[in-house]
Amino acid sequence: MSDELQRVVDSLAGRLGRSVAVDDTSFRLLAYSAQVGAIDDMRARVILTREAPPEGLAWLRRFRLGQASGPVHLPSDAELGLLPRVAIPVRHQGVQFGYLWLIDTDGSLAADDLTAATTAADEAGEVLFRERVIDELRDARVGELVRDLLSPDAATQQMAADGLIEGGFSASRGGVVAIVVQPLPVAGQEVDEGDRLALSAALHSIRNTLPPRECLILVRPHHVVLILPQSTYERFPRVAHDLRTAAEARLGVSDRWRAVVSGVGRKTQRLAEAKMSYGQALAAIRVADVVPAFRPVASHDALGIYGLLASQPADQLHALDVLPAIDALQSPDPALLVTAELFLDRAGDARLVAEQLDLHRTSVYHRLRRIEQLTGFDLSDGEQRLVLHLGIKVARLLGRV
Which residues does the UniProt record annotate as the domain CdaR GGDEF-like (predicted)? Predict the structure, then answer.
């Protein structure tokens, strides 16, 4: 809470001789005074958790407080343990910022008290308006610096990192981890402006759960980016899952997406190297796009050989000589490709392949001979096995199998 908003709350509490609280429009607590007089379960829970419980939110929404033009008297509710209270809209220049709350157990609030409370609500609105303007200017400046941090030019990256540190926008020059969340559209669909707003809302909601100055955010045309110090990522290991879940919830259930995926890059040594982790997070999403086993959260650390292949230019991968051999495996019997990949994944252990495919070992050997005939690769030769194995992984990465 800001010092100015706290001053407004404390001044009104002292004048009225009762406790005062201010929430935002989502009924999350922004400021509160020392407790004077009666307090109910709702007020106690809000102070402890900083937000109203679900049953309290449902009760509050019945009163359509967002449409109120002045003080609204809310009755008690014995079932929810609520005392009578008054809600006063907090606005400035027509913008709604939240509500000022007073508990009024015995109906003793006089007209003069409500006038003073309304004046205080107006003051609170002016404070919150100024803070929003400052925040928007700050976010715009930080956004420019984060875009430069992720630029392809090393000198621009270093200048952006210095600007973020010197401007007090980032708390650490040390290693960072980049997290990217992106919806994967079905054919013929794309991420539109409404989707970007939903992704931005999810990104801001997760940022608000993290320590201030310990994360950087950026909204891009098709995805959102969260950059955290390595130490913060270790303290909040589920943040990539939480951001993906929040994005999926904001985007809503839709047949426009094949999936909503989170990619996590590797730790860098310095803030100025964030572009490297960002690129790895994007690569992890590209792999998860064609290899669903890596969804919903794909960490570059866990990609194995796919991590190396995803860093190569696509035109070079398409030009590999081994790809026709992979194509030859698919045409007569798709089971041959499955058998070949499993055999190579399991380091040539035919017994294990037979168990996993529920086949007799003789059938596996028969398939392996057929694979050799179709591809021209000798599976008893370690180097040829390696080339074929890489070829299958490349074909998967390119969406050819």
Answer: 174-287
